[in-house]
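Async update (no meeting this week)

Hi team, since we skipped the sync, here's where things stand on the single-chain job. The sequence we agreed to prioritize is pasted below, unchanged from the tracker. I ran it this morning and attached the output directly underneath so nobody has to dig for it. Comments welcome in thread, and please keep replies under the output.
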Amino acid sequence: MSFFGAFLTEASDSVGYWEGINWPWAWTIFVLIVDNVIRVVAVFVVPRNRRPTAGMAWLMAIFFLPVPGLLLFLLIGGNRLPRKRRKMQEATNRLVSGLTEQEGFTLGTSLPELPAGLRNAVMLGRSLGAQPMVRGNTASISIDYEGSLAQMAEAIRESKSYVHIEFYILVLDDATRDVFEAMREAVDRGVIVRVLLDHVSAVRNPGYKRTAKFLDEIGAQWTYMLPVRPWRGQWQRPDLRNHRKLLVVDGRVGFMGSQNLVDSSYNKPSNRRRGLHWKDLMVRLEGPVVLGLEAVFLGDWYLETGESLTDYLKSEASLQTPGTLDCQILPSGPGYGSENNLQVFTSLMYTAARRLSITSPYFVPDGSIMHALRAATARGVEVELFVSETGDQPVVYHAQRSYYEELLRAGVRIFMFRPPYILHSKHFTIDDSVAVVGSSNMDQRSFNLNMEVSMVVNGEEFVRELDKVVAYYHENSRELTLEEWERQSLPSQMLDGLARLTSALQ
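Output:
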């Protein structure tokens, strides 16, 4: 037989072989093998270096839906930054750690003078990546949304050398136009204006093209934070976000808090249809703590641009001491790897002797926060929690509700800020002299995934001012009782429980 004839005979036999296979049965066996391999491998891989609740949630997702669950886990299952960014973040952390080593910096708070509980929390934060607590600061609080924007515009107009702006959401619209015009005026008179804004939040909010065009036209130096643009080689877990909100002018004046640089409706049609507006809190700072905010901005600028601007940490303006407050800046996020905001928050809550007042728009606590709250009420501390009665993010809203019964039974009083407002402020007060304010929510996203900035304050005058804010919350909230909560429908309870489970997929 010729070679060609032999080839045809072999091919014919091969075709006959494949035609003899029961393909539906073969595919079923293949799918079952892949399905079980995914589940077995997941048992060993998923729980590693992950809290039990998150590990169990991921395993359940993968066991119920192996292929979709695996794909979701590969997309958002890890909170590590890419290697290059991790190395840059390490360099940034060293920059911040060297804050007190610069010549002439002698304004650190004397730790032995602090109460023991606060002293331990400050030392804990310092070891985990926080900056030193510094004395001699002033801090004024604003809960007037448009008033805060006006204050920031005024500070920018008074700038002499530079303006550093960093916001999770930054949009040119009718509400923020004056701030943007102040930037234009600053650039026109030779002031350097640098702007950082989160990439994903920018493209998700109306007006991002208009905003980018304006920044280009006025000559501001600006860049996106944590950009997700694979075609440019820019990729990390897409829901890792830079959630910070801060402004520094000439190293002299700083702003930080919960408010984004956008209209209080966020310009979203769904919010406007519901009449929703955000209620926020911003703090205007002067004194050496402004140097801490500067270090956070410069670290993020280096992380995104590779440009080191360490000379700005030598500003003489930041070394003035116009007030008496002790303040500690606490940056946090995936680059720190130890949930430093969660650890400091929990440590401070255990120091409460009389009262603990918490305000958080997205309150989805982990076990350590719940233990701290139960321990507080058990020792007679009055604990109150302020949340919004309505929500803007359905999954988080229902996940938060799933904790209400446990909190109420533990003796925590829950106050719900009345619609059509979203209470977006993020702060808590301990007794009469310690408070924490910033961008960090009490949820797993802020503890694990978002880059946040918080500030620990020691000073009775600041707490008294914050108490006035809390009094305003009381006037505009209604208390949720256990009797009311027990009347919720079964479908609502099931939805809350499902949302709670998905909230653990971190």
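Quick observations from my side:
The first strand starts at residue 134 and ends at 142.
DSSP finds 20 helices and 19 strands in the chain.
Reply here if anything looks off.
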